[in-house]
Amino acid sequence: MSDTELLYSGRMECTLEKRGSVFVLTLTSESDEQHRLNPTLLSSLLAALTQVHSQATAASALVTTAQGRFFCNGFDFRWARAAADPQAARIRLRAMSNSLRPVLAALFSLPIPTVAAVSGHAAAAGAVLALAHDHVLMRGDRGVLYMPEVDLGITLPDYFAAVMREKVAAARDVVLAGRKVKAEEAVEMGIVRSAHDSAEGTVEAAMRLGEELARRKWVGEAYVEIRKSLFPEVCDVLGLAPKSIVSKI
After folding, report:
1. Cβ(214)–Cβ(112) below 8 Å
2. What is the pLDDT of residues 97-153, one digit of tens each?
3. HEC states along the chain?
4. Which of 3, 63, 106, 109 has the most CB atoms within 10 Å of its CB?
5. Distance (Å, rounded) from C-alpha 241 to C-alpha 34?
6. Can you tell me the distance from the alpha carbon of 54 to that of 212, in angstroms, rounded to the nearest whole number?
7. In angstroms, rounded to a whole number, what is the distance separating the alpha carbons of residues 32 and 76?
8. Distances (CA, A) of 103 to 27, 97, 141, 203
9. Bridge partners, 145 (sequence order)
């Protein structure tokens, strides 16, 4: 595209482009095709979202996607287990959880519509990352949404649980049963907006939706506060206090 502008390239972990009115955030990690969330990727995501916030206008939207078979396979347990001992591994895992929290806060604070193009598997923290967007589109020919914590014998961080309660009506089936939800099922369950035949088709549909939403030119400050009012528990856990806005009507 001639109107594509590269805005950010984060340590080979992600890129941020501007395609017309739509910011496109892509997980690109060459060292890990599963795009597992480690400190480097989390730092890059936060930097990219900060840049989106600073450059967004009323005629903008964000689409987040990933290269390859995975959208995001959760936290990087390999990095945690490479620590010197189990206690150090737990500290690393807690650090990743603490680092994802501001990434989600940044998503919920963006003054523009956000769309996740889930082009492959999204598990655990990766599923939470996708669900933190306003709209989720999913690849139908490959990939699942999966919350494996019950299978792994680990508990949910408070903000994970809040996202699942407020974003997924069938949270019990998804979380307590460790159910691997395919795209068509996710549409029927109201988790995702639509399913598509391929990764390319998913991204193309997300771009069309992003462009459509950007054309609405909603007032960003009001958009954020409406989002907060719809998901008060998530925003409270993330430390995002609501603001009072005087209507211009």
Report:
1. yes
2. 999 999 999 999 999 999 999 999 999 999 999 999 999 999 999 889 999 999 999
3. CCCEEEEEEECCCEEEEEECCEEEEEECCCCCCCCCECHHHHHHHHHHHHHHHHHCCCCCEEEEEECCCEEECCECHHHHHCCCCHHHHHHHHHHHHHHHHHHHHHHHHCCCCEEEEECCEEECHHHHHHHCCCEEEEECCCCCEECCHHHHCCCCCHHHHHHHHHHCCCHHHHHHCCCEECHHHHHHCCCCCEEECCHHHHHHHHHHHHHHHHCCCCCHHHHHHHHHHHCHHHHHHCCCCCCCCCCCC
4. 63
5. 34
6. 21
7. 10
8. 14, 10, 29, 21
9. 122, 181
Nearest-angstrom CA–CA distance, 36 and 76: 5
Is the pTM value of this prediction over 0.90?
A: yes
Report CA torsion sign: 228, 185, 42, 44. negative
Measured over the CA atoms of residue 195, residue 203, residue 142 and residue 161, the dihedral's sign is: negative
Sign of the CA dihedral running 124, 230, 186, 14: negative
Q: Tokens 């482009």 label which residue? A: 17
Backbone angles phi, psi at 247, to 5 degrees: -65, 140
What tokens were used for 211?
């462009």
Q: Using CA atoms, how far apart are residues 135 and 227, in angstroms rounded to an integer?
A: 12
Name beta bridge partners: 72.
122
Supply the pLDDT for residue 1: 42
